[in-house]
Amino acid sequence: MKKGAADNIKAGTGIYRHREWRGFRDTAYDYAKWAQLWGILFSWALRNPVQNVKALFRYRWMFSYLTAPAFFDRLCAGQRGAGLRASRCNLNHMAESITETLTTIFSADLHLHPGSPKAEKLNRKIICFDELLPALIGKGFPDCDTVLLQMYPMFLPSLLDQHSPDHYISQCELYGLPSDVCSLPSFEAGLAIEDDYPKIGCCMLTSNMPCDSSIMTSMIQDRRIGLPTQQLNVPLRWKREDVQEYAVDEILSAIAFIEKHTGKKCDWEALKEACEIWNGQNLAKFEKWEMNRTEIPPHTGASVWLYRVFEHQVACGVRKALHNDHKVNSILKKQVAAGKSPKTIRHRAIIWSTPANNYPDFNNWLLDCWGIESVCEMFDIHGTGLIDTSTRETMLYGIADMIETSTMRAHTKGGYEVMLYDLWDKYQEYHADMIIMFDQISCKGVAAINGLFEEGAMRRGIPMCRVRHDLLDSTSVSRKEMRDDVNRFMQTVMNETPLDASLLQFEDDYGW
Ligand code: SF4
Predict the structure, then answer these.
(1) pLDDT digits over 349-367, tens only?
(2) Whose CA is nearest to atom 3 of ligand 1?
């Protein structure tokens, strides 16, 4: 019997028995980039070995970072040609940026260096941001580092290792907090309860995320983090003209708050330069979207949406990230010009709603098992406007728009019609023939409009597959259950047979 991709996976663990064979050129490329990743990790570890070992034993979530090479392999599973190259470039770029920030965090962390005057001095130059607030404003303070505080102990570990949230979510529930809320804020609250946030920074800028769980976690985090804090309120009905002035006032107030606590003045020229770099990053993104509208979408999956989230939140206005975008686009353009796809594509799907952090390589599985190419993903579409930097005023309005259309905001805020109508538009734009609709079982805002999606798809005659998940919590909906939702739909509604039958059923519950 012909061997399938799942035969290379150790039962239960999801770990590969050996590296994937992709033909000589692609295997050699993949291997070289994998070795480069190890180089990035080793050079980071050896730069501050004592500090990093201390961090490893102080923070439970740090162990998840040890699984980074396996995580990168999962996100590149099955990829060939330009898609593989683009994925590896994006992922290694992220690895460089993340390890640099981990060094900044641990060098200043008073949990690791209690009473250290050197750490105290470093902290005076660290501005903490809520992870759902893009770091762009921080670029107006070039002498300071902006750190998205929950990104490193929570968001990234939840992607790297599906079991990293388990302990923190349990602590949150044992503490008496509700168990029916979204697992992302639960993880954040669990970190605060366990005192597992690094003790860094001179001030904290948060934002208003209007869901029940975010409201629950903000109070717990505020008590534990204990920094001078200001909330940057982002208008919820962000499409309306009459709220934009308020949005700009909030940004000006946030800048004044940072000035007060860092003792530095905002450098408007530096902020302008960062906005222009961000515009370049966005233009590169528009090109990518355009390429994915063609018959041979060259690059899809989590190494696309995850990179976009990272770029929008952390690496906005960063020149190195822009260079990576140009490099990736030139690789992708060649494949599109050649008119060849290295993969078999049977269906073009729009992937809507929030993806599952506990299963970021779900798109790779969709393509390898069923030939479903995720041509457009809601989580990839943020911040579609360019910032007009001609005057300070226009720039502030542009930054306000960029924040309003950031991760978790662009579609889930602004009124139900934003998420609903955009879906039908993208379906047309990307010439899709089906929809994969994530059913994030704890996101009550989106759950409230589930019926409208169902009704709309039925009226238009669009096949729509619902896939349940619980964002970060693999103990409520496992990866296997997510795959089962698709398998059932493809076999019964679409009347299809799989491209690779070995991938229909395999065990990976205990894997990272
Ligand atoms: S997925 Fe929904 S419930 Fe969870 S943080 Fe985002 S908006 Fe809130």
Answers:
(1) 999 999 999 999 999 999 9
(2) 443
